[in-house]
């Protein structure tokens, strides 16, 4: 091409031109199409903060092996959000320009402060109506304390339930146990069955956190999800890696160990889908949406500019406002660098247009960050300045030594291997996830 | 368009009217009565009279009402059809109430010159806007869909906008399909004017014959057309218009169907429907037949690929103008009965076919080309 050997009517020239790798004299249409694509990809930014996380209590009835959220004992006083803070947080949250607001209850175990959860749902629903906003609630709960009365209330208010299920009994109980030491598996399963009487199965999802112990049980973990009727599994790695705390708990592992675990999970999940059972790995679906479609997927933990504050924000029990859960953890460890202010003493403008947040966002454009700017996977990936800070005491961090980067690259490579192989079965499964259809539907739609 | 012929009496100038076969609509404006059994006094309420009989009563001639008699095939006219009567005794059916395929023919003029175009350009044609406005005022309000077509309707400029506005006001329940090469919509102001009409159910049906300007422009015979069409589609989308993209399957495009599908999905995910159409072989399509025609078996695998790509991505997709027996069964659900009833034919072989009811049939013009490949099911 450069030496003018390639004819402009050659197949390769036309394909490159159609995909906007090259342009001839008239640039405007190509630039216009590229800018539409770029705007579409970044559409998640247009709404500003949509996800608002409320830590309604630090108290928890669990003491999980991987928990470093420094949860408090059941009986401790002074760690619950009060009604005054809750109201102010909702007022701030509804000032967001986003048309659709998601309020997510976190903890501790939010059900230990059920009255406030209820108050927030009632108050925010009423206020959202006045302001013509759509509002959706997500309750992150271990489910073990949920009563029928609560379930009825959540069902009536269309609350989504996000729980934790780490696998079959021995895996789950190894990771997740009560303060007394007993595993919570049986209680979680009992609650799940009960919950489905009030809340449709599609509105209940679960996160799966991976410990060293989980690594040997990829298939059994997926089977447990299928057994319990889940159509989605979200496989999470520990956060952060190599944390001294995790090593002493003997649950940590290397990034490459996690990648091979992830591959095992995915192979098995794909096989299950091909047998007709719809189950997606939720994080993979997010990555595939970015790779295979022109559509926008904001995901606060993996986007650029970073989701901190501008996509998601967290209100602590005492009214402190943080750009992410990691920022809140840092504050609990004594580093208050990323606190945006307090709900009781700051205005919306002071919280969301503060220097702290600007500094984080300005340093989160992957296009210009060392280690990201020349990465082939950049446009599908994201930046997490506060996790960088957690490890490197610097929001830009050092990407070549970042385990998180290693993991994401590992996943991208693996997914691109599949895309390159272009196996009809695998691709049909991927598209069934991206379009929310069972494999049989994809097959009858497109069996050729 | 369907045309009948008879012997004219008192037809001084072209005349538009609405058919009345049962003498019940006599008070309606511009009714044309067919084979009336009415008194002279009653006949005076009518705009024109049509007869199938060999001759007519002298008394009727003396009424001075435009009349045509000795019309063969008059039975095809139904109540509420709209016809144009010409001084030479021709009767052109402009609107057929029973048909799902009614059109407003905006102009025969065009700014492109597609190598497979089935529509001859009439350079001497006058402005059809007044005729069309009258037609719109006579069309039955229960009509589900109307297509505005040509030629290239946007050549009519602001007149086209006037027609769409008239449809909005007079036919509020009728959805409109504007068939256009969309080049004119590269002009942002024109797109703005069209969008400002706020027609509640207007779809813009446009066409792409390639994923790049070199191939597309070559086919439509106009340099710069691809870029104008693409900009037109983006402009239309920016005002929230509903857009459908069509492509025609022939020698120049059949290997690129997947590329076209990719281009649409990657750049225009917002389009609500994509149609792959079999060639209509009249006019240019006939003259250039040797260089255009691809036997069905040669193009099916490319069509399958493109359809699979789009349906995997939940894009709404259809196949037009290809009979079912030439498509693999997996593609049947995409095949539509797309051919206007007055252009649709079946072969003698089709008589015993079990899926004929759902088949598109063939254009009168393509039936000879398809005949050897037909295999009744």
TrEMBL record, chain B:
PANTHER family: RADICAL SAM DOMAIN PROTEIN, TUNGSTEN-CONTAINING ALDEHYDE FERREDOXIN OXIDOREDUCTASE COFACTOR MODIFYING PROTEIN. Coiled coil: none annotated. Keywords: Iron, Iron-sulfur, Metal-binding, S-adenosyl-L-methionine. This is His-Xaa-Ser system radical SAM maturase HxsC. It comes from the Bacteria. InterPro entries: Aldolase_TIM, Radical_SAM_PqqE_MftC-like, rSAM, rSAM_paired_HxsC, rSAM_sf. One of its GO terms (molecular function) is iron-sulfur cluster binding. The keyword Metal-binding applies.
